[in-house]
Amino acid sequence: MQRLLRRDLCVLGDFAVHLSTDAVMHTPVEITERVMEKLAACNADCIVALGGGSTIGLAKALALRTDLPQIVLPTTYAGSEATPVLGETREGQKSTIRSMKVLPEVIVYDVELTYGLPPAISLVSGINAIAHAVEALYAKDANPVTSSLAEQGIAALGRALPRIVSDPTNRSARFGAWVCGACLGAVGMSLHQQESTRKQVEELRRQRR
């Protein structure tokens, strides 16, 4: 990841005014507020996020507070980049909001960014994406379009993940990841997201002990 960051900073040149590596799991509000101070000080006019769900979550939290446009380059499969959803944690309690202010304006899918992802992380991230699509099938606001997308995403990732685990440079999972993310953004989530949030908050509390 450090190599990718250096490469992107080199490409951006003088357009890059600050680099933040503060993102952590569950997007704690105190981290966001700390990065907000740095963001205001450097007078940035855009947010570029390179990473997985934690990095993109921080970018969304900053965009919510500043209305700055986002350019995101995801490196995992769960699909947060395709949704207007933001989950934040304050004092161990996680809350979720839905707002078009947090939906990234630009998503850049570069398959080579996922090549360094450990197979075990690829598998967990891909299964998380499939869970989003499964829930979209029985969501209260499901419709024929989202159900069709969900079925396509589940099938695509179901076929791709075994190949990704055996060959991390296989390109086949990316379409399924985007489709599952689109499902997450289009319908309401309940059981899967609530159970996932409960486990994540428990883990956060363990880490702080």
As a whole number of angstroms, the C-alpha radius of gyration is 17 Å
Overall number of domains: 1
Element order: H for helix, E for strand: HHEHEEEEHHHH
- Strand proportion, as a percent range, falls in 5-15%
Give start-end ranges of low-pLDDT stretches: 194-201
Largest sheet: 3 strands, parallel
Enumerate how many helices there are, as a single number. Answer: 7
Shape: globular
Q: Could you say what the CATH architecture is?
A: 3-Layer(aba) Sandwich
Number of strands: 5
Strand arrangement, largest sheet? Answer: 1-2-5
Task: Tell me the name of the CATH class.
Answer: Alpha Beta
Class per helix and strand makeup:
mainly alpha
Mean pLDDT: 83
Description:
The protein has one domain: Rossmann fold (3-Layer(aba) Sandwich). 54% of the residues lie in helices and 11% in strands. It has 7 helices and 5 strands, in the order ααβαββββαααα. It has helices at 2-12, 29-42, 53-66, 119-138, 144-166, 174-186, 191-208; strands at residues 47-51, 70-74, 85-90, 93-98, 106-107. Strands 1-2-5 form a 3-stranded parallel β-sheet, covered by helices on one side. A two-stranded antiparallel sheet has the order 3-4. α4 runs antiparallel to α5. The longest helix is centred in the C-terminal third of the chain and has 23 residues, at 144-166. Residues 194-201 have low confidence and may be disordered.
